[in-house]
Amino acid sequence: MDGITDAAFRSLVLDLGDAGGAVTEFLRLTTGAPGTRVLRRELGPPHPSIPVGLQVMAPGPEWVAETAARAGEAGASFLDLNFGCPVKRVFNRCAGSALLAHPDRLRAIVAAAVSGAAIPVTAKIRAGIEDDGRLEEVLDAAASGGAAAILLHARLRVDSYAAPARWERIARASAFLRARHPGVALVGNGGVERAADARRMREETGCDAVLLGRAAFSDPFLFREIRGGPPASLAEAAAFALRYLDAFLLPPGTVRAGTGKAKQFVRCYRAGGIFEGREGERARLLSEAGPAAIRAWFAARAAEAGPGAAPVAEEAPRA
Ligand SMILES: Cc1cc2nc3c(=O)[nH]c(=O)nc-3n(C[C@H](O)[C@H](O)[C@H](O)COP(=O)(O)O)c2cc1C
Q1: Closest ligand 1 atom, CA of 84?
Q2: At residue 155, what are phi and psi to the nearest 5 degrees?
Q3: CA 2 – ligand 1 centroid, Å
Q4: Which of 67, 79, 103, 233 is deepest in the core (most CB within 10 A)?
């Protein structure tokens, strides 16, 4: 998720060992194909046994084939094309979800990626812009363009992220692909907040896999729970938080940028019930605390949880 699940975060989640894969934040193609160094940076530290896809967003097929080729060279396991972003400045440039109204162009973008890529190409779509009347047409465009999988966010562009995700659209997509494009996998997305939701989505829709958005950031241990494991303990949740904060708070000169990121994390994080009964403390961290105080708060939770929970920082971040 753009501005949220950065390379450091994704890498820590993949280190936990339960997520089946990950996708980068989107990279917009505006003036040409990015170099492999840029793509490698987007992908983050390699995780050879777990598929990590590079996501790009393009208004048309220009530079897509070359980017797809370079994505493979940079170590991406697959190239994902973003046809779901609802943001106005993206939409007005006819990229992201705007392409749902232009299935022929969408197909051409997918086909361009497939022509350049030595890796599979996937398409992330929404169910529509203002209604879902063209869902099958869009699925057909992505599939006939050569997508190996389609990731369907079951909301419309006009819903942004707020309205309930309507999973019957995923069931519809599943039935359509099974009948018309049986080799194309369907990944369901939208509104999975708890482990039981992920299981229910698979059962109710027949999708092949489930993609977590915001819940992955709120509770990275959810992947383990979905696989039938236990939820995060307080010790695990605190240790993860410290590893993540240290990934961007410790390097000198990054503290300023880190403040917003640390607060974003505090706002969303719920693993291990870490803020249960402590919402007042969360509010105080958000309104008053700098990064050092935020880190200290998680270190205190780790200490409460017992030895072994907290990785010790070499150097305290500046406030
Ligand atoms: C702030 C934010 C940024 C996002 N950025 C991306 C992105 O870069 N690429 C993408 O495919 N989806 C992006 N998404 C959408 C999510 O991947 C996902 O489709 C959406 O949040 C619905 O899933 P959820 O209900 O599990 O959160 C973003 C969502 C949010 C809230």
Answers
A1: 11
A2: -110, 165
A3: 7
A4: 79
- CA of 53 from ligand 1 middle (Å) equals 15
Question: Which residues sit opposite 128 in a β-bridge?
Answer: 156
Question: Which residues, in sequence order, are CB contacts of 209 under 8 Å at separation 6+?
Answer: 20, 185, 186, 187, 188
Instruction: Please answer whether residues 153 and 125 qualify as being in contact, where contact means their C-beta atoms are separated by less than 8 angstroms.
Output: yes
Residues in the chain with pLDDT < 70? 250-257, 307-319
* pTM listed for this prediction: 0.94
Whether 207 is catalytic = no
With a 6 A CB cut-off, is 86 part of the ligand 1 pocket?
Answer: no
Domains of the chain and CATH, by start: 7-226 (3.20.20.70), 234-305 (no CATH)
Residue nearest to atom 16 of ligand 1 (CA): 213
Q: Which residue has a Cα nearest atom 17 of ligand 1? A: 213
Q: Which long-range contacts (CB under 8 A, 24 or more apart) does 31-40 make?
A: 32/63, 33/63, 33/66, 33/67, 33/70, 34/67, 34/70, 35/70, 36/70, 36/73, 36/74, 39/67, 39/70, 39/71, 39/73, 39/74, 39/76, 40/74, 40/75
CA 44, 48, 50, 52 torsion-angle sign: positive
Beta carbon of 194 within 6 Å of any ligand 1 atom:
no
The predicted structure's pLDDT at residue 256: 55
For ligand 1, what atom is nearest to the CA of residue 124?
Answer: 11
